[in-house]
Design a protein that fits this description.
alpha+beta; about 100 residues; 4 helices; 4 strands; four-stranded antiparallel beta sheet; about 30% strand
């Protein structure tokens, strides 16, 4: 299974003792010859429920597996995020981690 070979889950939490994530991402990529053939991305902790980042997935497919490609997808995944009163920091947190800032 190609996706199983390249998958990762990143959980950002305030303290290592906390079980819950402030923000998280699950990513699975099918990469062949340094080209992304398939992508599945899900974000958690930043909204009321986890959601697929389908626009980001579309950006990745057919593109080279490079940092620039990943940054473009990360930006797209958060582009339409609408902060609520007490969670605006989570969008910034997810953006910083996903873009390597």
């Amino acid at each position: 299974m190609p996706f199983a070979a390249r998958s990762h889950y990143l959980k950002i939490r305030d303290r290592s003792s906390y079980a819950f994530a402030l923000a998280s991402v699950a990513a699975a990529l099918d990469i062949q010859d340094d080209v992304i053939r398939g992508a599945r991305l899900a974000l958690g902790g930043v909204g009321t429920k986890p959601w697929r980042a389908r626009e980001a997935e579309l950006i990745l497919v057919g593109r080279p597996a490079t940092v620039d490609t990943y940054r473009e997808a990360a930006t797209a995944a958060l582009r339409d995020a609408v902060p609520q009163r007490h969670n605006a920091f989570k969008i910034e947190l997810a953006s910083e981690r996903s873009c390597g800032r």
